[in-house]
Amino acid sequence: MNVVVKRVDKGLPLPEYQSAGAVGFDLLCREQRTVGPGEVALLPANVIVATPPGYMLLVAARSSTPRRKGLSVPHGIGVIDQDYRGPDDEIHVQVYNFTTRPVTVERGERIAQAVFVRVDRATWQEVDEIGTPTRGGFGSTGH
User: Fold this and answer.
1) Whether residue 143 has pLDDT greater than 60
2) CA 74 to CA 21: how far, in whole Å?
3) Is residue 55 over pLDDT 90?
4) CB-based contacts of 12: which residues, under 8 Å, 6+ apart?
5) Euclidean distance between CA atoms 25 and 4, whole angstroms
6) In the chain, helix, strand, coil percent, each to 5?
7) Dihedrals φ, ψ of 69, to 5°?
8) pLDDT single digits (tens) 74-99
9) Rounded distance between C-alpha atoms, residue 28 and residue 46, angstroms
10) CB 130: neighbour CB atoms within 10 A?
């Protein structure tokens, strides 16, 4: 799949997959930032991506970042829509510093991973009843 991308800072490389079997590619922090203890910050990821029709770009934490840096993605994932591609629509990664010390993220450091995911749009057909029995509430399948 060929994807159009614009780097905000051409001094940093394009996103890349780190292995032949990797499904996610790394996003790099465009500039050095320090995130204070208990702080939520937006880190610029240096790219504007023209997500192809029929896809979304899912942004997720790298598995080593919480252990290595003390940063997590507070909302779990980020969803980049197909129409988020304007001249100022640089992808940013939201991070939460769960430590008691400031955490510095260096320019060019890998801060998140992104995956293209196929999507479809629903059309709604409203009914008065679905017709299947109620399964129960949260955790109802775990006895």
Assistant:
1) no
2) 27
3) yes
4) 28, 30, 46, 107, 108
5) 15
6) 5, 35, 60
7) -110, -20
8) 888 999 999 999 999 999 999 999 99
9) 7
10) 7
Q: Where are the domains of the chain?
A: 4-118
Strands, sheet with 77-80, edge to edge from the N-terminal-most edge strand:
25-28, 110-118, 55-60, 77-80
For the ranges 7-16, 22-31, 71-80, 111-120, the lowest mean pLDDT is seen at 71-80
Backbone angles phi, psi at 67, to 5 degrees: -70, -45
Contacts of 139 (CB under 8 A, 6+ apart): none
CATH code linked to domain 4-118: 2.70.40.10
Q: Which of 4, 7, 38 is nearest to 116 (CA)?
A: 4
Q: 112 or 68, which is more confident? A: 112
* Rounded Cα gap, residues 110 and 26, in angstroms: 6
